Amino acid sequence: MATPEQPNRIANKGLIDRRAPLRFTFDGVAYTGFQGDTLASALLANGVTLTGRSFKYHRPRGILSAGSEEPNALVELRSGSRREPNTRATTIEIYQGLEAQSQNRWPSLKYDLLSINGLLSPALVAGFYYKTFMWPASFWEKIYEPMIRRAAGLGRAADAPDPDTYEKSSAFCDVLVVGAGPAGLSAALAAGRSGARVILVDENFALGGRLLSDTEKLDGLSGIEWVRQTEAELHTLPEVRILLRTTLTGAYDGGTFSAVERVADHVPKPAAHTPRQRLWRIVAKRTIVATGATERPIVFGNNDRPGVMLASAVRTYINRFGVTPGRNAVLFINNDDGARTATGLHAAGARIAAIVDARHDPSAPVRKIADATGARLISGVVSDVQGRLAVTGARIVPHNGTAFDIACDLIAVSGGFNPNVQITTHLNGKSKWDDALAAFVPGDVPHGMTVIGAAAGNFALSRCLTDGASWGAGAATGTGYPVDVPYIPTVANTGYDIVPHWRVRVAKHKAFVDFQNDVTVSDITLAEREGYRSVEHVKRYTTLGMATDQGRTGNVNGLAILAEITGKTIPETGSTSARPPYTPVAMGALAGHHRGKDFKPTRLPPSYDWAKVQGAIFVETGLWMRPQYFPLPGETDWLETVTREVKTTREKVGICDVSTLGKIEVHGSDAAIFLDRIYINAFTSLPVGRARYGVMLREDGFVMDDGTCARFAEDRFFMTTTTANAVKVMQHLEFCHQWHWPDLDVQMTSATDQWAQYSVAGPRARDLLAKIADAPFDISNAAFPYMAVAELTVCGGVKARLYRLSFSGELAYEIGVPARFGDALMRRLMEAGAEYGAIPYGTEALGVMRIEKGHVGGNEINGTMTAADLGLGKMMSIKKDYIGRVLAGREGLADAQRPVLIGIRPVNRTARLRAGAHFLAKDAAATASNDAGYVTSVAYSPMAGHWIGLGLLANGPQRHGEIIRAYDPVRGGDTLVEVVAPCFFDTEGGRLRV
Amino acid sequence: MRINCPYCGERSLDEFVYQGDASLTRPDPSAPDAASTFYAYGYIRANIADAHKELWYHSAGCHAWLVVSRDTRTHAIASVTLAKNVALARAKSSPGGA
Amino acid sequence: MSKTSLIATSALDAAKSARRSHVLIDVLDNVSVVWIAARKGQSGALATRVNKLYGVTLTSSPRLVTSQGGVSFLSAGPDQWLAVATMATGQDLATILADQLQGLASVADQTDARTLVCVSGDKARDTLAKGLPIDLHPRAFLEGAVATTHAAHIGVILWRPIGSDSFIIACSRSYSDSFWRWLTESAAEHGLVVA
Q1: What confidence score (pLDDT) does residue A1 get?
Q2: Which chain B residues are within 8 Å of A283, Cβ to Cβ?
Q3: Burial, A813: exposed, middle or buried (Cβ in 10 Å; 0-12, 13-18, 19+)?
Q4: Is residue A404 scored above 50 in pLDDT?
Q5: Which residue in A660, A754, A830 has the most chain C C-beta atoms within 10 A of its own C-beta, making it the best mutation to test that interface?
Q6: Does the model's ipTM exceed the 0.90 cut?
């Protein structure tokens, strides 16, 4: 019956495509499976039951489940840069050429030397990392941690960049249905027929949920026939979107959900332009949660051996995948559902050695199944498992009788079902305990959410179908798409009838509660004995439920065992919270498009392309890419280039792209009054045709930003901000207008991107600009003096704005043209300036020249400075109120002892200065109490011929001429510097007014 | 979280910037006790576990400042209004204000 | 400015007009964009003036209206609009509007501040959903709808022109390169090939 290659395959069963065999390898051994298999089902078909080693003790582990709750069968999937650790064999669809490796074993899965950890287990009990490796402390980083990481741990991440792409997408719907089992399908169909926008998500690669695994009939149709019929109709509804292979990972406020779609995990590599995974953000008006339930094991000795499997998973392997996981099975159950697995196994030709029912009085349905399958029915427990790499037998302890051993190769276990309530609790909702079901069911659920079917604790198929239909129709109707409740097929009733049995007390061997984190009953007992009685403490001390599966098969068992130990009820014991994500999410999916160059957007200034051709070196300033300096052939050092740029600008003329400055149009009849309230200095007094330097404070009195503001008309100003603060200043202005002074007639909009703006600085700046300004504009010093501004045309009719501003201290202008002409203007300026020796300069030279002039920059306006600290106290108007005025007057901010802006130069003129060094009096010890301030900006000054700096020094203005220390213990610097006025070049300021 | 901007409609949290308590208004800077009223305005905050009126800025949208009434325990939003309208109404009700 | 010798460049010159199968992307040049904000207390008078001059009623919700002459007025915030039109060479919409709306509105040219692309095709919505966090379904985003939002962390304003199932998206000029990288990467799955 079985093919030689796949000895456990059952003829004529399952939803696999036997015409489509697929080759794959596990630990280098080649196997064959079929289209429609998971890696787990294909391995089982080939008789492979040992799939990995456990986290702490390196115990052999097999396949426990058939779904995403799998704690044991974690493998490394693919190889090279596509290698992905900790993937669940139970959810991986096989494809031609799939490669998988077992994890956490050395040198091989069968002979794992580190299983000696099992012998060291006393050292690895609950809380081991809190107490075992505490001494000596210095051993932790070098010895203990690397050792533990080698011994205990999971798979290896790829060590090369992921070659695949990921993306994010948004989706909106009226009704979101989570889970495509009988309840979800029924709900989606009912809602979809209304015409409402419906999204149906399921983590599986096929619709149907448990209907793919069970054999119940719906109106005489098999489950799969009904699923196919329903799916066909859903596909005819244009507003229904079905997302398969999509896990709903989190619920967020306002009907927002995250979901991960595995677009291409089931193919060898993604098709061109197709992402591997897609992260969805789904916004739904109504949500129907039909996530089903997860079976839980019973805790007994050696219950982690390969061959111990959840009873419902056994049915899935038989009915859906046509694989029998064993030939001679023992069932260990505490409810009726588990017994149905015997029927499935029997039909698949396996022998049922025994049905062990933990209930003292097994129910009639179980007796009937035992009779029909020829199974021996025992009221009792399985206490321990025999076999190491595979189950070879079970020790059975009848409630009334003597223990005995029985040979078997499979133990199918059912401790009952836990409704999958996780996403109902992501927003802090608490689930509630249901005694009859012995399970947590949804409690308070978020607004707009309804839980139906097994997820709500309604396990009967008939109930799933009827609730799905009525809630699906109700949800659509509630969003404005009225629809009748559809016809529901008739199904036979099946009972559940559970009597909880959490653990087998007579077990002799290690009894696992949390398989993935290797947490045993004795760990919980120990934690309790050491005083960790709150469930939250037990969780963290034992790591119960803290593995990548978030304890989906272990949490409730652990909680119940803790309750037993402490003598409390389960509701008294409480429960821990599930948090997003429901299953692990790849970092790539969270990043989506935003990796590498696209990690964040980049802003390019208008002269970018031109500067690139010139060989400029760029620097990121915020999101902007600005030319930092323009090396010429033969220049080997940035300082050489920058020195040339500064000298040429100061001797001839230099051009710098300053388009990145924030620019804001401020209009309105009250614009001047508004600016008076924003800046510390006055703007009502600014004449039309002039600009003024302004400083603005935050309301707490510290400097927020500085820049110039030009007045082009009585009611029309043009503000510039620093590059870094443009967005923040805009927000601040909007706030002040809309919230403080809504009665002012003022309107504003950002114009940063509208204008390409170039600084043209140096003695020949006027000559250069005279060549491009259209007649009759008069650019003479008399007609267009320092701080003048004008609207004009340049280059034969291009509208432009000219500002006579200087950051460099030279005769300088800023010329603005609409950005589409920015590239051309840069080229034209360079052509026109050729005869004067014009050069472009970057942000470095800009910075050097502003330090030579003592102008403050971002290093000084760092959020901790007052205007007075920066030497700008005299600008603070006493004739008007402005933002920050009152709090700037606070004692601490007005303290005369506060460090104030000064200049420094090294006593030894060849010494280099470093920003960040702290000031100490010449003979003072280097203690915090002697700290007198610090260096904010430094530069090599080509004009002075040595390093210069700006800094903040207590009583600074009174200390000009004093020699102090610039002490820099981080970089080993200790330099004597002379305190000077913060201006190193053209102290009279004559150059900029010529 | 989603905020229903009175102008743009319902948008996701990441389009907004949070500012804080909307029950505070800028004190009269010319009052004799301005130093203490501004100190309180700048720094003194209740840590409210209840309905809270707060200022949000629709930075990625229409640039309107909003007064949002939000329950800090559940993030349930009871109302959203344009801050400018609240401010105008406030100015009307207290002639000395603004 | 017809006589200038300066050559205007689009921020997306290199990338213009990529069109294939399910997504069509056109870079729109020569479209003027002008910011209009009502002066205090002048919203009514402004609406009246615009109606008289252009025969359209300014809306106070995020929608657009288009005049017979092809000037669209997009609502862009409380008491703010963008006038958008393809202008004949030598005509400056900002200057014209500043003149026409004198005293009623503040006006500033934004033509150069924005790069405009038009995205159409049966996969336009699926493409845009990869970055735009708003609902573009025909039931939710009707013809003439306008939205200011962001796409892949880049601020955008987008609208559906009247009589068309396409989307026009304007992003700030300096972001054009990043915006284009996102848009073309998102559209590639649907067959877009950049010429």
Answers
A1: 42
A2: 2, 12
A3: buried
A4: yes
A5: A754
A6: yes
